Amino acid sequence: MILGAMIFYPGGEHLASWRLPGAQPERYLDVGYYRDFARTAERGGFATLFIADELYVWDRFASGIDHVVNIRTEPFTLLGALSQVSEQIGLAATVSTTYNEPYHVARKLASLDFLSSGRAGWNVVTSASDEEAWNFGRDANLDHAVRYRRAAEFIDVVNGLWDSWDDDAFRYDKESGYFADASKLHRLDHRGEFFTVRGPLNIARPPQGRPVLFQAGASEAGRALAGATAEAVFTLDGGGIRGAQALYDDYKRRAAANGRNPDHLKVLPALSPIVGETQREADEYLDLIESLTPDRLSLDWLSHYLHFDVSSHPMDEKFQPDLSVPTNQVKSVYEQIRRVVGEGTFTLREVNRAMLRRRFLAGTPDRIADWMTERFTGGAADGFMLAFSSIPVGVEQFVELVVPELRKRGVYTGEYRGATHRENLGLPEPSSRYA
Ligand SMILES: Cc1cc2nc3c(=O)[nH]c(=O)nc-3n(C[C@H](O)[C@H](O)[C@H](O)COP(=O)(O)O)c2cc1C
After folding, report:
1. What keywords are annotated for this sequence in UniProt (predicted)?
2. Which of 172, 271, 367, 371 is surrounded by the most beta carbons within 10 Å?
3. For the segment 199-230, what is each residue's pLDDT rounded down to a tens digit?
């Protein structure tokens, strides 16, 4: 079983996580906070530390500023620092292919791979919010299909740039004065729909050949891209094991259809555990999260994902919106809300609560380990991307209490099997296209 540890909001997975007991909001821009997280995750044998990212402050609604953690360090700068204070864990962060240029990204990732001795990774996202568009010269986000075409070309260019130098291109020969061998340098000369990149890249081929490529797109276009290019996907399976198995099979089938070994596309459902000594204690923690979330924030969060304003709707009255029009934003979250709303007649508060209960798995260490084991052995997951409800408490509890249970069940060793991120994920090292 592969485990990853992610940070979306610095305080944990929920908008209100920063208010939970043990949260340390004054440390969210402090490298020591992330160093501690990395070291705890390493104690648990986690293959990947993943920093999620967005390129905006969530100010569409005033509640976003009042109540939400809108500050974060630029993730690759942070990972550069973490590469020096961690030893084994893979270091990955989100890259928007809509608001970056491939040359920048290829260079940054290759640098991190050198700084960390082969532990770099990137999570390709296409960026869904208009707020992001407004920071990069656009009035609105690009169309979903265009974003994904751009992402595919982006990945192709980055992979090409990483192959600029053959592994034995450098001679460092002081005597003759030859630093490098020009015959071992390759110019990309890429001209496509979105990018024109001559190359070559001004850094050697990364230690891993290519830093590990993660993705989390859930739509048809997102899955198609993952099947063609991703080495690990983070999924949101929406609940039952059957759905998770179907999703797992879908990704594996897509990899095979692209002529790839399906085992080289790892499927890692996102999992947000809440660990309690008893089931009751875990459930009460969920109630606590709910009680720490102001109503106006819950309403605005729903408005954001539904892309229409629900804030004037009373929390305790029936909520039955028309959700038949597809969104240009995050389709998967929209779909989840649509499913909840379609399951019966609910008030807004009840819809909110149902979404909260779907997002977290609350239970004893035993129950959480059983749940994970069932999915892992039942062909529904190669591992999990853990999004803790609170940091640092959630990750510490998981490592102390759940990891031993997983070990006991023989599904997780908790040990690093190799030196590089790829080796620890069970992925092969790609050779250069010129090899
Ligand atoms: C575990 C996980 C992590 C994600 N991290 C990010 C992120 O850091 N930044 C981002 O913009 N989107 C992130 N997403 C959203 C996805 O990249 C994707 O946009 C979303 O699932 C919608 O899918 P679609 O683009 O195929 O419609 C994440 C999703 C999941 C499940």
Report:
1. Flavoprotein, FMN, Monooxygenase, Oxidoreductase
2. 271
3. 999 999 999 999 999 999 889 999 999 999 99
